[in-house]
Write a structure and sequence with these properties.
With 213 residues, the protein is an all-alpha fold. It has one domain: Up-down Bundle (Four Helix Bundle (Hemerythrin (Met), subunit A)). It is built from seven helices and no strands. Helix 1 runs antiparallel to helix 3 and helix 5 runs parallel beside helix 7.
């Protein structure tokens, strides 16, 4: 049931987009692992480029499902439940994968995962009290920065070593790979800081409900 009382089913365009994003998460991971285990990273190989392109599409459709639901007046409880899961999967599978190729330390993934558990738990708590805490600009900035950093690093691993990829510390300072590496790394540091900050901000906003016991 939408906010306006319109009855909608599960198979709305918005929910279909969300479900496609979820299905493509493991499909993307299989593609990326194929490139990694076959030794195709930093080779400018078509499989590695395809892996980057598919992930880019997953990130660009981040807001599409929500837009479709609102514009068609088809906001549903099923969509509200499924959309955050899709968003979290898109981020976490890329972070885990990039951790396997030693581009993202495990503690960064842990911070993001812990924040998502905390916020999800708080959302359930405040929802049970009939309260809605609006998403902050911090959360939006966190999402945008995270996606930008992940996409930069995934393109970096797809580039051939001749473009400055594979060894950023020794590569040419003018190389495209060198630039993408540092853009990705700096973006992820900022994203993790925003992740912790937005999580703390959400907790502070929910504290009056939490402290009531």
């Amino acid at each position: 049931m939408s906010d306006q009382g319109k009855s909608v089913g599960i198979w709305t365009p918005a929910n279909i987009v969300t479900m496609v994003r979820i299905v493509f998460c493991p499909a993307w991971l299989l593609l990326a692992e194929w490139a990694r285990t076959a030794g195709l990273l930093w080779q400018g190989n078509a499989i590695a480029y395809l892996s980057f392109f598919v992930y880019l599409v997953l990130t660009l459709t981040d807001k599409l499902d929500g837009y479709l639901a609102r514009s068609r007046n088809e906001v549903s409880d099923f969509g509200k439940f499924l959309d955050p899961i899709a968003d979290k999967l898109v981020v976490l599978i890329a972070m885990i994968y990039l951790g396997e190729v030693n581009l993202i330390p495990s503690w960064m993934t842990l911070v993001v995962l812990a924040r998502e558990f905390l916020v999800s738990g708080l959302r359930m708590l405040v929802a049970s009290e009939g309260t809605v805490v609006a998403a902050s600009n911090l959360g939006k900035a966190k999402t945008a920065t995270t996606m930008a950093g992940l996409c930069a690093l995934l393109l970096y691993v797809a580039l051939p070593a001749s473009l400055g990829a594979c060894d950023p510390l020794l590569g040419s300072p003018s190389g495209l790979g060198f630039a993408l590496y540092w853009i990705g790394e700096m973006s992820m540091w900022v994203a993790v800081a925003l992740t912790a900050w937005s999580g703390a901000d959400y907790f502070i906003k929910c504290w009056p409900l939490v402290s009531r016991g």
